[in-house]
Each structure stands twice: as C-alpha cells, then as structure tokens.
C-alpha cells in the first residue's frame, strides 16, 4: 500500500513538473522592416493583429488553402538534392503550378551577422524541369542547411515550406 | 506462461528503445524544427524587407504597412509568420510595429523561444521582454510580452 502511494506521489509530481515545463506564454518574433514605419508601438501592433478580422493564416489543416506540402504530396512538385563537394544541385519538375521559386539557404555559424544566408532563388514555371547548382561557401560543412520553397497557392497566397 | 513472459519482455524492449531514442535523438529533432522555424521566419522577414525597399525606391516613400505591399502586388499575401503548420494552437501573420515587423505566437513555450533565440544568436540566458529599443535597434529574435 505504501509503495502504491509512493508511486502515485512520484507520478503526480512528474505530471506537475511536466505541466510547469510546458507552460506557454505570448512571444513575438521581431525583425527590422526594411524601411516601413507606421509609428506603432509593439503593443498597438499586437492589438491590431489580434483584432484582425482576416483570420490571419487561417486554421492549420482547415482545407481552405493549398500549401506547398500539398503541392509536393500531389506530385505537382518533385525535387531532389545532390551534394558533391561544395556544390549542391537541386533538380526536379513542376506541373500545373502557376509559379514557384525555390531557394536554398544555409546557416553558417562562422559568419557575422549570424543569419541564414540564402542562395539565388530559381524560378520555374508550369510544367517545367529545373536544375540548379549552388556553390556553397567555405565552412558550410559545419552548418545546418535546408531548402526554403516559396510558392503561390491556388488562391494566390504566398506560402513557404522549409525542408531539413 | 511463456507467451506472457515473451510479451512482457517485448514491451520492456520497446519501452527501452523508445526511451533511448527520446534521449539520443530528441534534441536533434527539436533542434532541426527550431532551425526550420527560424529559417522560415527570417526568410519571410527578408522578403518583407526586400519588397519594402523596392516599394520605397518606386514610390519615393516607405510602405506604411504590409498591406501596402500586397495592394501594389509586391506580395501576393501576408507571409504566414507563426501561423504555419508548426504553430500548435494559434499564431499570427506579420504586422508592422514601428520600424520592425513582428509575428505573434500566443502558445509558445519558453524553451522553444529560447531555442529560437539561441539560433538567432541573441546574447541572453532568458527571453528578453519586448521593448521599443528593440524596434529602434533592429533586434532579430524572440521576445516576451509578459
């Protein structure tokens, strides 16, 4: 009986700790706007976006938007990557895609400022084969890298998808 | 009896494997997810920055909002920000705040915010509280509203 009580106490403590460690709050990701300045404070901007009637982003999985994930799943975009030495080749095909640009980006923790660096986007159009080779800068080996695929969906909305 | 023992051993092995995988690979999975989020957000932010500068050179004034970039055709729509597939229970698109663009996530854990800041090379052990100096100084990273 004592063992049962002890086990129960341990379990409840673990659950409590788990709940505490996953407590969430409101965080914002901030970046310079590149010249835009609406003289709003952050608090005002946050109030605006909360009050927005446009349902920002919609609901994930609501079926209202075609995402790049769906484009890939539908087979309207196929791609593959091949890394040889310091050159990365991205190739693939698109069908029935209005326009799609593919860019490769990588993190280089050896550069300053420590921001992801992006390759020149490749632009491919409907029913197109594409292949592009990027020369990676020295030091990429110690970096994480991935591809950012940016596309317009069927509703004309810009969507992006990062592959790692 | 033998079957019961085999079943129990199987369950134990599966449990051990799961625990090992969680400890050995858990950080790696989370790390990649955080890097992907940071990469996408900075990518979107750079798109807004870039088109904002093009707008400025075309119209002789800075766009007042992201909507201006959409109305003039530079952006098809507002980039998703945290309102993407990695936002578990809600997120918001980008908006302008002073000279910064921001995207809100109401249900992010402190652990994840810290992880994103680590990738962004924010030099702080804790998630900083959002303030106007960040907007002025071109801060890049996650800050807390609380």
Write the layout of secondary structure elements.
The complex is a heterodimer of chains A (164) and B (146).
Chain A: H1 2-21, E1 24-32, H2 42-51, H3 68-73, E2 77-84, E3 87-94, E4 99-106, E5 117-118, E6 122-125, E7 128-135, E8 145-152, E9 158-163
Antiparallel strand pairs in A: 2-3, 3-7, 4-5, 4-6, 4-8, 8-9
Chain B: H1 2-59, H2 66-71, E1 94-97, E2 100-109, H3 110-119, H4 132-137, E3 141-144
Antiparallel strand pairs in B: 1-2
Q: What does the largest sheet of chain B look like? A: 2 strands, antiparallel
Rounded radius of gyration of chain B (Å): 22 Å
Q: What is the H/E string of chain A?
A: HEHHEEEEEEEE
CATH architecture of the largest domain in chain A: Sandwich
Number of helices of chain A: 3
Number of helices of chain B: 4
**Main sheet of chain A, how many strands, which sense, barrel?**
5 strands, antiparallel
Radius of gyration of chain A: 22 Å
Quick summary:
The complex is a heterodimer of chains A (164) and B (146). By secondary structure, chain A is α+β, with helices and mostly antiparallel strands.
């Amino acid at each position: 009986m004592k063992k049962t009580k002890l086990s129960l106490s341990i379990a409840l403590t673990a659950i409590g700790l788990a709940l505490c460690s996953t407590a969430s709050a409101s965080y914002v990701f901030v970046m310079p706007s590149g010249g835009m300045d609406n003289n709003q404070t952050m608090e005002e901007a946050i109030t605006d976006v909360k009050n927005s009637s446009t349902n920002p982003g919609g609901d994930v999985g609501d079926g209202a938007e075609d995402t790049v994930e769906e484009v890939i799943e539908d087979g309207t975009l196929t791609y593959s990557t091949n890394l040889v030495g310091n050159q990365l080749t991205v190739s693939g095909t698109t069908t029935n895609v209005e326009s799609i640009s593919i860019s490769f980006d990588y993190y280089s923790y050896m550069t300053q400022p420590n921001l992801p660096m992006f390759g020149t986007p490749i632009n491919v159009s409907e029913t197109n084969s594409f292949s592009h080779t990027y020369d990676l800068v020295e030091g990429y080996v110690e970096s994480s890298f991935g591809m950012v695929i940016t596309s317009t969906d069927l509703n004309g909305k810009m969507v992006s998808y990062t592959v790692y | 009896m033998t079957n019961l023992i085999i079943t129990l051993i199987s369950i134990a092995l599966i449990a051990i494997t799961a625990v090992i995988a969680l400890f050995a690979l858990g950080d790696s999975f989370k790390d990649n997810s955080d890097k992907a989020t940071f990469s996408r957000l900075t990518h979107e932010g750079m798109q807004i920055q870039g088109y904002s500068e093009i707008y400025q050179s075309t119209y002789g004034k800075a766009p007042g909002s992201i909507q201006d970039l959409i109305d003039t055709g530079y952006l098809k729509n507002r980039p998703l920000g945290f309102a993407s597939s990695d936002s578990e229970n809600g997120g918001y698109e980008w908006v302008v705040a002073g000279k910064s663009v921001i995207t809100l996530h109401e249900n992010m854990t402190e652990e994840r915010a810290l992880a994103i800041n680590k990738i962004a090379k924010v030099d702080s052990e804790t998630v900083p509280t959002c303030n106007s100096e960040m907007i002025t100084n071109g801060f890049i990273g996650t800050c807390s509203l609380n």
